[in-house]
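Methods — Computational structure assignment.
A single polypeptide chain was analysed. Its primary sequence is given first, followed by the predicted tertiary structure written as C-alpha cells.
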Amino acid sequence: MKIEHGSLKVESNGSKVTYSDITDQVRQEIQEAGVQDGLCVVSSQHTTCSVIFEEFVHDKDWNGDELLQVDLNRILDKLIPRQLTESDYLYPGQDHVQFLEELSQQTPEYPNDLTTILNADAHLRASLFGSNQTLIIKDGQPLIGSVGYIYFVDWDQNRKRHRTCNLLMMGD
C-alpha cells in the first residue's frame, strides 16, 4: 500500500465567506501520488474552515458567487449570525483573549487586532460542516461524478488569510 501526503495553499478574501474550488488541484495531487485505487482525505487544519463536497453551479449572482453558495450563506446567516460585537456570543472568553494576545506577541504573522477574533460564527459553522472529506479513488480518479466539486471554505470573514489544505492519498 502506498501512502502519500500533499498540501494545497488557499487564500481567503477576508471580507466574506470564501469558497475555493480545489477540485482540479485534488485531481492533480492524486495523479502525482500515483494511487490508482484507494482513498483521498482532503482536510483543513484550520478551526474556522471546512472542506465540502457540492455540486458545481454554473449560475452566479452579480458578485460572482455561485448561487448554491449564496443560498447556503443566507440559510447559515439565519442559523448562525455573524459575530459583530463581543456580546453576540460567549466566545471568546477572557482567558482565550489573553492567550491570543500572547500569541500575537510571539507570532509575527498573527495580528494584534482583537476585532479579528470576533469569529465565533466561523468556528460554529466549521464545526457544523466538519474539516474534511474522504474521496474514493478508482482507476486514478476521485469518484465525484460529473458535477461534484470539492470546495475549501473559509467561514471567517474578519481578515484575509493564507490557508493550508492537507491531503492524504493511500491505496495501490
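Note: The two ends are 5 Å apart (CA to CA).
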